[in-house]
Amino acid sequence: MDVSLVLIVIMGVLFACGVYAMLERSLTRVLIGFLLLGNAANLLLLIVMGRPGVAAFFDPSVSAEQMSDPLPQALTLTAIVITFAVSAFLLALIYRSWQLGQADTVEDDAEDIAVRERDALDEDAMDDETEIDDDDATTDFVGVETSPITIVGSRDFPGLRDDAPTDRPSPPGGQNGGER
Q1: Is 18 in contact with 33 (CB distance < 8 Å)?
Q2: What is the pTM assigned to this prediction?
């Protein structure tokens, strides 16, 4: 398998530039970084494919060593489609962000600032709050009164008419015995 060192270096540079661009706050740079990562992934699959050969359906008398591997080609097509779809989504996000705020940068909200300003003492206090005292409990919902799911039947609400099909035959005169 002959792989050009130039292709490997270009792939590494594309991956590095793509990751660097995706770490920016501008959504346009995130899009450019994602496109660079997509192209680097396609180049990686091209490198993995190895030496080009004859198509598998071309000639049945060709040996397996002379045939091209179709899996990297299929993966490359899939990567192109995924890159296109995510790029279209990011473009829609950038357009909407520009419509709302005339900028495509992602700003910190109040929760992000509060998390950034926490110090080690606050982290220790939060860790102490999350410790569980009862090690015997296998679930968070131990009692019936704290259970989040309540099974309610039609008998619990007298005015409610149950239209669900049943295996029992209907009483004569309609579903509710002729009453409406």
Answers
A1: yes
A2: 0.56
